[in-house]
Design brief:
By secondary structure, the protein is mainly beta. The chain has a single domain, classed as Beta Barrel (Maltoporin, Chain A), CATH 2.40.170.20. It has a 22-stranded antiparallel barrel. A 5-stranded mixed β-sheet has the order 1-9-10-7-8, with no helix packed on it. A 3-stranded antiparallel β-sheet has the order 4-5-6, with no helix packed on it. A hairpin with a 2-residue loop joins strand 5 and strand 6. The longest helix is centred in the N-terminal third of the chain and has 32 residues. The chain is globular and about 75 Å long. It comes from Azospirillum palustre. Belongs to the TonB-dependent receptor family. It is a multi-pass membrane protein.
Length: 766
């Protein structure tokens, strides 16, 4: 794709912004169900009230300002976006990738997070085949605010086997935005790394002059490594004001093989996704209602002691978008229920009806309301309010015949509640064509609590034949139940950004952000210090044991960053962007060792420390050659580096990506779009000693992809890891599944990456 195809983002997009878009049963009492219904009614009432206040009240407050504005109808204010873009009119802007790039990447993966590979500042924590955890500028997992169709998805597993981006499939994904580092307060709170916004396809409406419009799409893909297959179908029927659409997909893969031919155990998965979307629009107003079911019969986790053996999610989302004479309004409401089960798959010795079942039931509900008011030609005000509610139950059924895992049900988290109420105001001012500023403040109140818990047994010791073992979980449970568990955090965020454009070939952007994140339910309330109980908690891929800490303080990150952007005057031929940043995190939630486990693993408690992260992202692109006969060639590259350190211990921070780069040469000729990628990563030798993080050697991979589109048919092909290179994932964690299969002897090693894989895909539109 040439740079001429890049559309500038609106000046209001202040951040490192990349836009990617392509054309249960369980212990739930009656009282608990009533509480859920009450919360939903409260959320709906709050959304309606906020909408009324943001409409009529704002018109009354700013009559002169809004009357001078011409607000476009909704169809024009929500244009179709077909690129990933971070152009020079957005602060701390990033790279650019065409819609064809997304279409070409989809056949290669079933993991939405993997589509973000190659964006500045983005790295991925290894996890299951469709459950990678994204990190932004060295900060990952819950430190990233991930919104799926406008709503956060809380962890519904002590190992985060079902993270937010796993709840939407690549085939259903329509748009994904990544705002890294200095993030506007309007992009969300309760996070310190940035925001990722994943959106499914909006309703399709009939164009003018067409009474009834119908369209559909069928797609299929195959990946040779692991014999991964994906099939998807979409269909819509609509008038100019009503729309009904369906999207469904199924994706499955077996264990992949590393570059040396070794089968990497516990990397298989199976996921099925179905969603129905209904839309209504009229006179600049649109209402969208979407509901769906996702089932995941199994997913292996090579770095964890357990696997996912069942995961079922039901969700319902509603959205209102409206254009008024005073500005625009975006209101959303959401509800999601997830029933999750862990046990052992065959690679870890599992068998039908046996093992060690562990269950989680989570309900998320909430709303958000955002209003944008163009007060004058120079000033724009954004205000908003949101409520997020999470209820979590995490229990482990007794195992028949086991003296250690019975006779009671183990409650890891019982009646866990995490609520958050957030409010923000943001002012953007274009002082002149050269100077633009933005100031924002935000308040989030987070209150958390949990009920009394119980171990497998209240006895102080457990019998094991002729032996008796101490039962620390009984002592821990009594101490946990005896203390006050409710916690309330009052958090404040602030963002200040400025952009200076001295000429049509350069721009300088600078800013400061104060961001705050409160602990999640597991960080505060995972109470068991026993060897087995602690080792079941932790989403870090290191097979260590983790214990919660009710006295954890919220993390407070202070970030300063600058972006220098250079490009040709027409923004068609070349561009270079450099973004250095510095982040100081007060009360960073790290760990402290409190004991050891068998086979060299350790027991860790979450604890507050101070930490710093220093890094830089460099991106560049240039058109190399263009000819009508042989097509156009374009070269692009991204380089990332980050250094993280715990100031209290002097240790390295965990899961910090070493120096890495991605160099891409693209070619386009008519319907053909091809690329060659060189992915290079330096040796990871700075690791966190407290968790026994493994070191990994440097490596370089070559990937090929090509696609051809004519009419309503598109064909894709590619090869990943062309030379079948053996390498280890720097953030992949440890290969616990292989270690266990080998009898848990020796030292556990780093997780190998996937070897060569041939990829083919086809999409037919009708």
């Amino acid at each position: 794709m040439s740079l001429a195809a890049i559309r500038p983002c609106r000046p209001s997009q202040f951040a490192a912004l990349h836009i990617l878009r392509a054309d249960g049963a369980g212990p739930c009492s009656a009282g608990l169900r009533s509480r859920y219904l009450m919360m939903l009614r409260f959320a709906a009432a709050g959304a309606l009230r906020a909408a009324l206040l943001s409409g009529a009240a704002l018109t009354a407050l700013f009559p002169a300002a809004v009357s001078a504005q011409t607000v476009p109808p909704l169809a024009q204010s929500l244009p179709a976006i077909s690129v990933i873009a971070g152009p020079d009119d957005a602060l701390a802007a990033g790279t650019a990738l065409g819609g064809d790039g997304l279409a070409a990447r989809r056949p290669a993966t079933g993991d939405v997070a993997a589509l973000l590979r190659g964006l500045p500042g983005v790295s991925l924590y290894g996890n299951g085949g469709v459950s990678s955890l994204p990190a932004l500028n060295g900060l990952g997992a819950d430190r990233v605010n991930v919104l799926v169709d406008g709503a956060p998805v809380a962890p519904a597993c002590p190992n985060q086997m079902n993270p937010a981006l796993s709840t939407i499939t690549p085939t259903r994904l329509s748009k994904i935005e990544v705002l890294a580092g200095i993030t506007p307060v309007s992009a969300g709170g309760d996070s310190i790394a940035g925001t990722i916004v994943a959106e499914s396809a909006p309703p399709v409406f009939a164009p003018a002059g067409e009474a009834v419009h119908s369209e559909g799409k069928l797609s299929a893909s195959y990946r040779s490594n692991g014999r991964g297959v994906t099939g998807a179908a979409e269909a819509s029927v609509a008038t100019d004001s009503l729309s009904l659409g369906y999207s469904g997909s199924w994706s499955r893969a077996g264990n992949y093989k590393a570059g040396n031919g070794q089968t990497v155990r516990s990397t298989l998965y199976d996921v099925q996704d179905n969603a129905v979307t209904f839309g209504v629009r009229r006179d600049g107003h649109q209402v969208t209602v979407q509901g769906g079911i996702q089932t995941m019969p199994y997913q292996g986790f090579p770095t964890q002691r357990m696997d996912l053996t069942d995961n079922r999610t039901v969700f319902l989302n509603g959205r209102y978008e409206g254009a008024f004479d005073w500005g625009t309004l975006d209101a959303r409401a959401n509800w999601r229920r997830t029933r999750h089960t862990m046990n052992f798959l065959e690679d870890k010795g599992g068998s039908a009806g046996g093992g060690m079942p562990m269950d989680t039931l989570t309900t998320d509900a909430g709303y958000s309301v955002k209003a944008t008011l163009p007060l004058s030609a120079r000033n724009t005000l954004r205000v908003g309010n949101e409520l997020r509610h999470t209820h979590l139950d995490d229990w482990w059924d007794p195992v028949a015949g086991s003296s250690m895992m019975g006779p009671l049900t183990y409650w890891n988290v019982k009646d866990g509640i995490r609520n958050r109420l957030g409010t923000f105001a943001e002012w953007e001012a274009a002082w002149s064509p050269a100077w633009t500023t933005m100031l924002g403040v935000r308040n989030d109140v987070v209150w958390m609590d949990t009920g009394a818990v119980q171990p497998y047994s209240w006895q102080n010791s457990l019998g094991m034949g002729m032996m008796r073992m101490a039962n620390p979980d009984a002592t821990d449970a009594r101490a946990f139940n005896a203390r006050g568990r409710g916690r309330t955090d009052v958090n404040f965020d602030a963002t200040a950004l400025v952009r200076y454009t001295p000429s049509d070939t350069s721009a300088i952007e600078a800013g400061y952000a104060r961001k705050t994140r409160s602990p999640n339910l597991y960080e505060r309330y995972a109470w068991g210090t026993g060897g087995m109980s602690s080792s079941m908690n932790g989403w870090f891929g290191d097979a260590n044991g983790y214990v919660g800490n009710p006295d954890l303080k919220p993390e407070v990150a202070n970030t300063v960053s600058t972006t220098l952007s250079l490009h040709d005057a027409a923004r068609k031929s070349w561009e270079v962007k450099l973004t250095p940043y510095y982040t100081y995190v007060q009360d960073f939630i790290d760990v402290e060792r409190i004991g050891t486990l068998s086979n060299g693993f350790v027991k860790l408690r979450f604890a507050n420390h101070d930490a710093i992260l220093v890094g830089a992202n460099l991106s560049a692109a240039a058109g190399l050659y263009e000819d009508d006969r042989i097509g156009s060639f374009r070269l692009s590259g991204v380089v990332g580096w980050v250094h993280g350190r715990n100031l209290d211990t002097g240790d390295a921070l965990y899961h910090i990506m070493p120096l890495n780069a991605l160099l891409t040469v693209e070619h386009r000729l008519g319907g053909w779009n091809s690329a060659v990628e060189l992915q290079a990563t330096a040796r990871k030798d700075r690791v966190e000693a407290a968790r026994n993080e493994p070191k990994t050697p440097s490596y370089a991979l070559v990937n090929l992809r090509t696609g051809y589109e004519w009419g309503n048919v598109r064909v894709d092909a590619g090869v990943e890891n062309l030379f079948d290179r053996q390498y280890y994932l720097p953030l992949g964690g440890v290969d616990y599944a292989d270690f266990r299969a080998g009898g848990s002897r020796g030292t556990v090693g780093a997780l190998p990456g996937a070897g060569r894989s041939f990829i083919a895909g086809m999409t037919v539109k009708f």
